[in-house]
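::Amino acid chain::
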Amino acid sequence: MLVGYMRVSSESDRQSTDLQRDALLAAGVDARHLFEDRASGAKDDRTGLAKVLEFVHPGDVLVVWKLDRLGRSLSHLLEIVNTLKSKQVAFRSLTEGMDTTTASGELLFHVFGALAQYERALIQERVVAGLSAARRRGRIGGRPQAITGEKLDAIIAALNGGMSKAAVCRNFGVKRTTLIETLARIGWTGSSGTSSP
């Protein structure tokens, strides 16, 4: 059975699914098996998409007018198509001519998968290189320290003097998680193994 999915990016009346509907009906999708969203592709909570993914059964083909109607990015599109594949549901995009029921469509899908994996690897490589470059320049990633300077010195002195962490939090007006993170960052291990801030 052919099942259609349509999406427009806006709730406004100016955007219509008519073009997509006509193309899907012409491709053989039954009007009773059309699902629709009026939401940005970036939204995770698309009810129409959730409904169509729940509706399809093994042997069905999910048909869209264009690839960008289904996924917000290449990786998101591949995630959805892999979900369909796990349910033994094929996928067809009319505009791009992708059809996973054919050998060439399956090949194209695998090429997309390889490109998405390559894109993720490049992004990860850039992040690691950027962090390394920042470290070489003396910058450490993450949020700036919340407790610094004289306040930190006073807190360390109080802890080394036997004050509990709970008392330090009350007396210095800091959250417990902030205190713990700061102590871990500077390597403080208690008065027996204090490291200098």
The two ends are 67 Å apart (CA to CA).
